[in-house]
From TrEMBL:
<keyword id="KW-0813">Transport</keyword>
<dbReference type="InterPro" id="IPR035906">
    <property type="entry name" value="MetI-like_sf"/>
</dbReference>
<feature type="domain" description="ABC transmembrane type-1">
    <location>
        <begin position="124"/>
        <end position="311"/>
    </location>
</feature>
<keyword id="KW-1003">Cell membrane</keyword>
<feature type="transmembrane region" description="Helical">
    <location>
        <begin position="12"/>
        <end position="31"/>
    </location>
</feature>
<feature type="transmembrane region" description="Helical">
    <location>
        <begin position="177"/>
        <end position="198"/>
    </location>
</feature>
<keyword id="KW-1133">Transmembrane helix</keyword>
<feature type="transmembrane region" description="Helical">
    <location>
        <begin position="233"/>
        <end position="260"/>
    </location>
</feature>
<dbReference type="GO" id="GO:0005886">
    <property type="term" value="C:plasma membrane"/>
</dbReference>
<keyword id="KW-0472">Membrane</keyword>
<feature type="transmembrane region" description="Helical">
    <location>
        <begin position="145"/>
        <end position="171"/>
    </location>
</feature>
<keyword id="KW-0812">Transmembrane</keyword>
<feature type="transmembrane region" description="Helical">
    <location>
        <begin position="112"/>
        <end position="133"/>
    </location>
</feature>
<dbReference type="Pfam" id="PF00528">
    <property type="entry name" value="BPD_transp_1"/>
</dbReference>
<dbReference type="InterPro" id="IPR000515">
    <property type="entry name" value="MetI-like"/>
</dbReference>
<protein>
    <submittedName>
        <fullName>ABC transporter permease</fullName>
    </submittedName>
</protein>
<feature type="transmembrane region" description="Helical">
    <location>
        <begin position="280"/>
        <end position="298"/>
    </location>
</feature>
Length: 318
């Protein structure tokens, strides 16, 4: 499959996915009870306003302000058209333009997520590969055990304890440490255990292969053997790389940003759900889908680069 056809295929798949997900989010927010509106009605009643007409006026004003006062199918088509043209309007909670609000938050999240992923890949592959080639080594076993312990430890609780020391005045709160270094460390430890496990498992499969045994018999260096193993183990490792990172970081981003008060993508979406801020939530959904489509495209291209025998876009029987 040519790269152009692959781009077209992934693009169409992304559009279909975006339509299904955005429609589901829209339905959930328009066909379920609106707790924000109920809060406003409750506050009016608590203040002594029980006139049905006055309460209906509050409802009508609320839906009109949020662009939800027309026939449902017309409202739906209008929202989908806005999402497709990136005319995401303004936040219903803050009044800020949604597109720069979402993209800026995503960049702040990427500021600690991308370094964490790169560090986890490098450390995970190195530890897993070394453990596969030197299974009897105490260093290898200790490194694997350490990676698993970091994964198992309640790192978010530990981060909270460090944060409480700063709040209590026991230690200072340098901006770099709390806004960047600790978030990177927490995301790194969240990913490391999985990467070590996958890298070790796939590397062990090739570490005992005939071609590696031949290289060892010819006196090949450890680096040369590692190179052969990595080349062959890279494809199955890449197949889980993006999915594993996305799955873990979706949860980690929410916890990290709430814990450290980072105005990133996770915290923005959490606040959008709490405020029923539909433009921000739909815009954030488009960004998540875009990242997913881009990740799949990078995986496909990586397969062809790692092994020319693998046709681009042909993985999993495609």
């Amino acid at each position: 499959m040519s790269l152009l056809r692959l781009l077209a295929k992934r693009g169409l798949l992304g559009l279909a996915t975006a339509w299904v997900v955005l429609t589901s989010v829209f339905a959930l927010f328009t066909l379920t009870e609106d707790w924000v509106l109920q809060g406003q009605i409750g506050a009016a009643r608590f203040a002594g306003e029980n006139d049905p007409e006055a309460l209906d006026a509050i409802r009508n004003e609320y839906f009109a302000a949020r662009g939800l006062d027309g026939p449902l199918h017309e409202v739906y088509l209008g929202w989908m058209a806005n999402m497709a043209t990136f005319d995401w309007g303004v936040s219903q909670a803050s009044g800020e333009p949604v597109f720069p609000l979402v993209t800026d938050a995503a960049l702040r999240t990427a500021g600690y997520v991308v370094p964490a992923v790169l560090l986890a890949i490098l450390a995970g592959v190195a530890i897993g590969l070394y453990a596969a080639l030197r299974p009897e080594s105490r260093v290898a076993n200790g490194s694997v055990t350490g990676a698993y312990l970091l994964f198992a430890l309640p790192n978010f609780w530990i981060g909270g304890m460090v944060l409480s020391l700063s709040v209590g005045g026991v230690i200072d709160r340098p901006a770099f440490l709390y806004d960047h270094a600790l978030p990177v460390l927490l995301a790194f430890t969240t990913l490391l255990g999985g990467y070590v496990s996958y890298a070790r498992a796939h590397s062990r499969e090739y570490a005992v292969a005939d071609f590696v045994t031949l290289v060892r018999a010819k006196g090949g260096s450890s680096l040369r053997m590692a190179t052969h193993v990595v080349r062959n183990a890279a494809i199955p490792f890449v197949s889980m790389l993006f999915t594993e990172a996305l799955g873990l970081l979706v949860l980690a981003a929410f916890v990290i940003e709430v814990l450290f008060g980072i105005d990133g993508f996770g915290l923005l979406l959490l606040e959008a759900v709490n405020e029923r801020d539909l433009p921000v939530l739909l815009g954030g959904t488009v960004v998540v889908i875009g990242v997913g489509v881009l990740g799949n495209l990078v995986q496909d291209v990586a397969y062809g680069s790692l092994d020319p025998r693998v046709e681009i876009g042909s993985r999993n029987g495609e």
